[in-house]
Amino acid sequence: MSVPLLEASGLRHAFGDTPVLDGVSLELRPGRLMVVAGPNGAGKTTLLRVLAGTLRADAGEVRLAGVSHAELSRREIAQRLAVVPQDSHVPFPFRVREMVALGRAPFLGPFGREAPSDVALTEQALAELELHALSERAYPSLSGGEKQRVLLARALAQGVPTWLLDEPTSHMDLGHRLHCWEWLRAWLSATAGRGCLVVTHDLVLASRFADELVLLERGRIAAHGTPAEVLTPARIASVYGVEARVGTDEDGRLLLSLVRSLRSARGQDPPGNIR
Amino acid sequence: MSARRVLAPLALLLLACIGASLLIGSAQHATAEIVFEIRLPRALLAALVGAGLATAGALLQALLQNPLADPYVLGISGGAALGGVAALALGGGFFLGGAAVPLVAFAGALGASLLLYAVASTGGRAPAHSLLLTGVVFNAFASSLIVFVTSAADLSRVASVFLWLIGSVRLVEPALLAGVALLFAFGLAIALRHAYALNLLAQGDETASHLGVDVPRVRRQVLAASALMIGASVAVSGLIGFVGLIVPHLLRLTVGSDHRTLVPASALAGAAFLVSADTLARWVLAPIELPVGALTALVGGPLFLVLLRRELARLPS
C-alpha cells in the first residue's frame, strides 16, 4: 500500500478552554480529492493550519509523505506541500507574473536567483490558468476571482504533489468555479501521486468532485466517506440544521435540494468562525 | 525589470548629484580645500544617511506589509534619537569615543522597532491605523524623554540637541563617517541577503511560511538590519523624516515591487535624494543653511497624507 501524501492522527487543539480540534485523524491518499466541510467554527481553518504546519497542535501528529512535520524545516515542507489560501491581501503592486513566480521560492538558491527551469514553470502555470493576458497587471488591481486564479497558478508553479486549498473558488462566478474544479481534477489525474485536500462550504461542488468528504462538527469528524455516504438528509439536518432533500439525477450524480433552515427565527446564531 | 538595468542608471544619478553638490555652495570661488574637505565629506555623509533611511523604509514596509511605514513616522528614529541623546547626556560619548552614539542609537532604534512590532502587528500584518497610532504615541513619549534627559543633564547643550533633532547633515570626524559607513554596509548586506524573502513576507507571514520562509528568523534579522541603518543615520544627522517613505514609494512606481531590485535601488536613490536635498538646503537661502530635515518634511508630509488617504480608502475597517 502506498504511503499517504498527508496523514493526521489524533489532532487535538484548544484556544484557551475552547477545544477546536478534538481527535481528528485523516489521511490523504495519492490520486484523491478530499473535501473537508462543516459549519462555521467546526475547526476547518485550524485543521488546515495544522496540516500546513503553521500551527502546532496541542496533541497529535501530521506526517507529510511519511515524515513528521516536526522533522521538517519550513522550506522542506514547502518543497512537498502547497497551500492555496482563499484571499491574499498584498499592499504592494506586484505583477501577476511575479506573484506566480513566488511559487518557486522553496527551490531557489540564496538571493532568490531563478534558473531557466523556474522561469519555464512559471510561464507554464500562467498559461495553464489562462493568465497570460493579465501577467503584467498589478495583482491588487485584479478582481477576487482573478486573484484566486493567480493563487492557483502559484501553487502549480510550486510543482509539488500535495495541495491544501481553502475555499479556492469562493470569489469566482459559476462558470469559472466549475472550470477550476474540473481543472483541479484534471491536474490530479495527469500524474500519479498527486492529491489535494479542499476546505469548502460548497456541498454541491463537493458532491460533484470529491472522492472523499469529511464533515467536521465542533472539532470532531462527524462523518467521512464518499459524498453519497456522507450527505444524507438526517446528517445535513443534525450538522447544519438544514432540511434538505438528496437524490440522484439520471447519470447517477448527487442532487441536493435545500428546503429550509431548521433554526427558529430567533434561535441561536451559528457559532462564530473560530480561528 | 532586471536589477542591472535599474541600478546602473541610479548609480550614475547618484554620482551626478554628488558632483553637483561639490560645485554648488556659498563660497564664490571654491578652493580645492573647500570642495574636498568640506563639501565632499558632507555629500558622502548625506549619501550614507539617505541610503540608510530609504533602505530601512523599504525593509519596514515589507515587514509590516504597509507602504506607509517610515522610520521617522513610526518613531524608530525617535527611539534612536533617545538613545543618542541619552548617550550624549550621560557622557557615554566621552568615555567610548564618538562610536558610542551610533551604537546606543542603534539600541534605541531596535527597542522602538520591537515595541512597535509587538504592539501594532497581528499575524505579522500591521494595519495603517494601529501602526500610525503606535508611532505617534511612541514619538511623543520619546520626545518627552529626550526633553527630560537634556534638561536634567546640561542646559548648555539644549540648543544643539534641538538643532540635531530637526535633522541636518553636518561635518563629522572622518572616523565617525567611517563607522557609520561600516554599520550601514553591514545592515545593507543583511537586507540584500533577505531581499527575496521580503517578497514573500510582503504577502503576509502565513503565506511566507507556506512558501518556505523561516519567518521569525528572517524578521529578526531584517528588523536588526533596519535598526542598524536607522541608528547610524540618526546618530550623525538627527531626525530626518520621510526619506524612507518617499524613496521606496517612487521606486515602486518605476522599477516595481521586487525587493531584489527595490532594496539596492532604495539605497542608491535614497543617497541621491538626500544629497540633492542637502545641496538644495544649502543653496535656497544661501548663505543661510536650512536643516535638510525641514526640507524633506516639506515634501514628505503632503505625500504621506496622500498615501494615507489612499490606504484608508482601500481598507474600510
Q: Can I get a quick summary?
A:
The complex is a heterodimer of chains A (275) and B (317). Chain A has helices at residues 44-52, 74-78, 96-101, 116-128, 144-158, 174-190, 203-209, 227-230, 233-240, and strands at residues 6-15, 18-28, 33-37, 59-64, 67-68, 81-84, 162-166, 195-199, 212-217, 220-225, 242-248, 254-261. Chain A has 275 residues and is an alpha/beta fold.
Describe the structure.
The complex is a heterodimer of chains A (275) and B (317). Chain A has 275 residues and is an alpha/beta fold. Chain A has helices at 44-52, 74-78, 96-101, 116-128, 144-158, 174-190, 203-209, 227-230, 233-240, and strands spanning 6-15, 18-28, 33-37, 59-64, 67-68, 81-84, 162-166, 195-199, 212-217, 220-225, 242-248, 254-261. Chain A has a 6-stranded mixed sheet with strand order 6-7-8-3-9-10, with helices on both faces. Chain A has a 4-stranded antiparallel sheet with strand order 2-1-4-5, covered by helices on one side. In chain A, strand 7 (162-166), helix 6 and strand 8 form a beta-alpha-beta unit. In chain A, helix 4 (116-128) packs across helix 5. With 317 residues, chain B is mainly alpha-helical. In chain B, 78% of the residues lie in helices and 0% in strands. Chain B is built from 14 helices and no strands. The longest helix of chain B is centred in the first third of the chain and has 33 residues, at 32-64. Chain B starts with a helix and ends with a helix. The interface between A and B is medium-sized, with 32 and 31 residues.
Question: What is this structure's SSE topology?
Answer:
The complex is a heterodimer of chains A (275) and B (317).
Chain A lengths: L5 E10 L2 E11 L4 E5 L6 H9 L6 E6 L2 E2 L5 H5 L2 E4 L11 H6 L14 H13 L15 H15 L3 E5 L7 H17 L4 E5 L3 H7 L2 E6 L2 E6 L1 H4 L2 H8 L1 E7 L5 E8 L14
Parallel strand pairs in A: 3-8, 3-9, 6-7, 7-8
Antiparallel strand pairs in A: 1-2, 1-4, 4-5, 9-10, 11-12
Chain B lengths: L2 H21 L8 H33 L11 H14 L2 H5 L3 H21 L7 H26 L4 H9 L7 H20 L1 H7 L3 H6 L4 H23 L5 H13 L3 H25 L8 H23 L3
Helix pairs in contact in B: 1-2, 1-13, 2-8, 2-11, 2-12, 2-13, 3-5, 3-6, 3-11, 5-6, 5-11, 8-11, 9-13, 12-13
